[in-house]
Amino acid sequence: DTGVSQNPRHKITKRGQNVTFRCDPISEHNRLYWYRQTLGQGPEFLTYFQNEAQLEKSRLLSDRFSAERPKGSFSTLEIQRTEQGDSAMYLCASSLAPPEYNSPLHFGNGTRLTVT
Amino acid sequence: AQSVAQPEDQVNVAEGNPLTVKCTYSVSGNPYLFWYVQYPNRGLQFLLKYITGDNLVKGSYGFEAEFNKSQTSFHLKKPSALVSDSALYFCAVRGYRDDKIIFGKGTRLHILP
């Protein structure tokens, strides 16, 4: 178990640029989640996948955000035309799927995005 | 939809004293409850989870949590606090057949030497 890996750890970009983050989950986990966390707040759900299927996307999520998990392994989160309000820590997590309803999420260390 | 509340932004405890971090939840059906800890510039680490039928659940680093169905609470506890327990703690809930896990806003635990 090598844990959940996220790259890059830090990303600084100028407003209006596109950015892409990568997440490699724990290999036997078929669920993959993306969360966003701002200072002083708890993680906010963005979207999740089971294998390659995106099962839910937060209604709060702008159309500028898109996520993929093309082969059911790693996932990418892309933000187009970044805004300063997108500055946050982006967390990826993986878990087993139901019926393991109490399977905990295993988090990566996150990607910190700063939009200038 | 499920929700979780952590009423305290910060809890201060002297080293060696017992600690409690509060959490209440709202969910349809059986609750799936979790506690996580976050250290600076790191992701969240799983501490413990509620197991149906167990009102006291034991987890990592000597932490435990007390489940109370009538009060819809899942408070995190530790009999004797360590300075190294200082961190940000999150309570989380997953509803049955709703696979999002929703997190509270977090409680910062400060253990005073």
Beta-strand proportion of chain A: over 45%
Helix content of chain A: under 10%
**Residues in β-strands, percent of chain B:** over 45%
Query: How large is the radius of gyration of chain B?
Result: 13 Å
Order of helices and strands of chain A: EEEEEEEEEEE
Label the overall shape of chain A: globular
Q: What is the mean predicted local confidence, pLDDT of chain A?
A: 92
The chain-level structural class of chain B is mainly beta
In this structure, how is the largest beta sheet of chain A organized? Answer: 7 strands, mixed
The largest sheet of chain B, given as strand count, sense and whether it forms a barrel, is:
6 strands, mixed
Enumerate how many helices of chain A there are, as a single number: 0
Low-confidence stretches of chain B: none
* Spatial gap, N to C terminus of chain A: 36 Å
Low-pLDDT segments, ≥5 res of chain A:
none
Description:
The complex is a heterodimer of chains A (116) and B (113). By secondary structure, chain A is mainly β. In chain A, 0% of the residues lie in helices and 48% in strands. Chain A has strands at 5-7, 10-13, 19-24, 31-37, 44-50, 53-57, 65-68, 75-79, 88-95, 106-107, 111-115. In chain A, the strands form 2 sheets. In chain A, strands 2, 4, 5, 6, 9, 10 and 11 form a 7-stranded mixed beta sheet that branches. In chain A, a hairpin with a 6-residue loop joins strand 4 and strand 5. The N and C termini of chain A lie far apart (36 Å). Chain B has strands at 3-5, 10-14, 19-21, 24-26, 32-38, 44-49, 56-58, 64-68, 73-78, 87-95, 98-103, 107-112. In chain B, strands 2, 5, 6, 10, 11 and 12 form a 6-stranded mixed beta sheet that branches. The chains are: A mainly beta (116), B mainly beta (113). Chain A binds chain B through residues 4, 6, 31, 33, 35, 40-45, 48, 55-56, 91, 93, 98, 101-102, 104-110, 112, and chain B through 32, 34, 36, 41-46, 49-51, 90, 92, 94, 96-97, 99-106.
